[in-house]
Write a structure and sequence with these properties.
- There is one protein chain.
- With 550 residues, the chain is α/β, with parallel strands linked by helices.
- The chain has three domains: 311 residues, ANL, N-terminal domain (Rossmann fold, 3-Layer(aba) Sandwich); 72 residues, Luciferase, Domain 3 (Luciferase, domain 3, Roll); 96 residues, GMP Synthetase, Chain A, domain 3 (2-Layer Sandwich).
- 28% of the residues lie in helices and 25% in strands.
- The protein is built from 17 helices and 26 strands.
- The structure holds adenosine monophosphate (AMP).
């Protein structure tokens, strides 16, 4: 057999440090601005960020950290967190971002599962870390991400280290090492709404490929002319990879720190001329409320990615029509780094009538190169892409996990008998154009008389009612139909809205049999640590609710 001719191109491992090295050399003067935990604005450049990342890598080595060690963070979106990302992964350690909004016991459980050896944290979380420390036996060093002036006078944390002192002790004369691109770079845990959270370990290769794909015009599509403010936290799937894409593209990055209220965000958007953002739907509820209540407009903000939960079409409409902001609806998950699909139109679709365009844009969108998806019935057979057949969604690709950290058994399943697909736990349809529409988490689907009702579709209709602030739909058991939908609504402040008016709003918008059986008005809908509605809790809360006619 003839020997195949090999390509004759240079090869070097796809490492995360290569991203920030590129930014320092080729976007060196571009700014990174942080509204710090200390309250002031901090401003420096990609060149400074890379220098300080090398210094922090030196500091970690001096603390005795070894390749492969898990270095944890409990931190907001700030320049120091960014430096920690690059210092840790760049020196072949593993950056483990922990969500501080989890219950303390969950944080301890996760840190122990990961066997974290160092914990970097923001001053906000000092009381939390002091409380947790006795249950974190693997953590050898605690690093407070601040300067000497802001260190606490007293703390129960023995040998607490100061981030800026560690930094100041190093000269940055450190060359980023080259190593196998399949080495672990980041560790993110799923939110664990059922059972314990599970770790997803991303490699350097998968992270770099994900960043390149995220930067594509039909993905996030940010350029070096953009100013990007990720509202999505760096502790939720690496802020959807933005800290890496930012270096790869070389755009200006604006970090809001802990200041996530409507007023602070609005001032940062305007002050720094932000053009692009990303966040879960609940974030925009807060910001839009503030902007509306104060009669404000955005002067530079033009596009935002919304994902993590279904973006209600009413929110998309308000952003577009009232503020001129284009929404890019995205779907993904921790297990896929997280980007899977984004909603953008091709030339033919962009020439469709406005309502047809809108209908497509409201869906979760098309996959980007690097991932593939399929929907299957309960028998594992692939379903047609007709926009109607709803099935279990599976994915595979360069940045999809093939196993969970510390779990030897494979989570993968088959499509048409071919193995190697990750079951997402989501249910959806795919249309002829390849647009995915998520109809539900499989456990949230309402199974009524042998048919499925999409809770997301009902929520989207309720959210279009002008008096509704937030809406969730859950299944309640029903003696005749198995399950029927209950609509749980938070009204906007000061409005009158009755059960009959709310249910009447569904008439003509959806098939009669899919209209919820009842409405419960509540002051608040519970959310998870990543901003998703906690339907498990709602089902618990309403388990004794009597639907009419039973
Ligand atoms: P997480 O791993 O915390 O990012 O959660 C991933 C899950 O969030 C997915 O499996 C979906 O159930 C849900 N999700 C993410 N984006 C969307 C979206 N655009 N629409 C509906 N559900 C979404």
């Amino acid at each position: 057999m003839a020997t195949p001719l090999m390509g004759q191109m240079m090869t070097s491992p796809l490492t995360i440090s290569s991203l920030i090295t590129h930014a320092a050399r080729h976007a060196g003067a571009t700014e990174i601005v942080t509204k710090r935990v200390e309250g002031d604005l901090h401003r420096y450049t990609w060149r400074d960020a890379e220098q300080r990342s090398r210094q922090m890598a030196q500091a970690l080595l001096k603390l005795g950290c070894q390749p492969g060690e898990r270095i944890a963070t409990l931190a907001w979106n700030t320049h120091r967190h960014l430096e920690t990302y690059y210092a840790v992964a760049g020196s072949q350690m593993v950056i483990h971002t922990i969500n501080p909004r989890l219950f303390p016991e969950q944080i301890a459980w996760i840190a122990n599962d990961a066997q974290d050896s160092v914990l970097f944290f923001d001053a906000t979380f000092l009381p939390l870390v002091e409380k947790l420390a006795p249950s974190l036996p693997s953590v050898r060093h605690f690093v407070l991400m601040t300067d000497r002036a802001h260190m606490p006078a007293e703390t129960s944390l023995k040998g607490l280290l100061c981030f800026e002192e560690l930094m100041a002790a190093e000269d940055g004369r450190y060359a980023w090492p080259e190593f196998d691109e399949n080495s672990a770079a980041c560790l993110c845990y799923t939110s664990g709404t059922t059972g314990n959270p599970k770790g997803a370990v991303y490699s350097h290769r998968s992270s770099v490929l994900h960043s390149m794909a995220a930067a594509l015009p039909d993905a996030m599509g940010c350029s070096a002319r953009d100013v990007v403010l990720p509202v999505v936290p760096m502790f939720h799937v690496n802020a959807w990879g933005i800290p890496y894409t930012a270096a790869l593209v070389g755009f200006k990055l604006v970090m809001p720190g802990p200041h996530l209220d409507g007023k602070s965000l609005y001032e940062l958007f305007e002050g720094e001329k932000v053009t692009f953002s990303a966040g879960v739907p609940t974030v925009w509820l807060g910001l839009l409320n503030y902007v509306k209540a104060n009669g404000l407009k955005f002067s530079t903000f033009k596009r935002t990615v919304i994902g993590g939960s279904a973006c209600p079409p009413a929110m998309m409409k308000a952003l577009k029509e009232d503020y001129g902001i284009e929404v890019i609806h995205a779907w993904g998950m921790t297990e896929m780094s997280p980007l899977g699909t984004l909603s953008k139109l091709n030339a033919r679709q962009a020439a469709l009538p406005a309502d047809e365009q809108q209908h497509l844009l409201e869906k979760q969108g098309k996959v980007i190169w690097g991932v593939d998806m399929a929907i299957v019935g309960d028998d594992g057979r692939e379903l047609p892409w007709d926009g109607q057949s709803a099935g279990n969604l599976l994915v595979r690709g360069h940045w999809v996990i093939d196993r969970y950290y510390n779990h030897p058994e494979s989570p993968l399943a088959s499509v048409d008998g071919k193995p190697g697909w990750f079951p997402t736990g989501d249910v959806g349809t795919i249309d002829q154009d390849g647009f995915l529409q998520i109809t539900d988490r499989s456990k949230d689907v309402i199974k009524s008389g042998g048919e499925w009702i999409s809770s997301i579709e009902l929520e989207n209709i309720a959210m279009a009612h002008p008096d509704v602030f937030e809406a969730a739909v859950i299944a309640l058991p029903h003696p005749k139909w198995d399950e029927r939908p209950l609509l749980v609504v938070v009204k906007k402040p000061g409005v009158e809205l009755t059960r009959e008016q709310m249910l009447g709003f569904f008439e003509g918008r959806i098939a009669r049999w899919q209209i919820p059986d009842d409405v419960a008005f509540v002051a608040e809908i519970p959310h998870t640590a990543t901003g998703k509605m906690q339907k498990l809790k709602l089902r618990e809360q309403f388990k004794d609710h009597k639907l009419p006619g039973i």
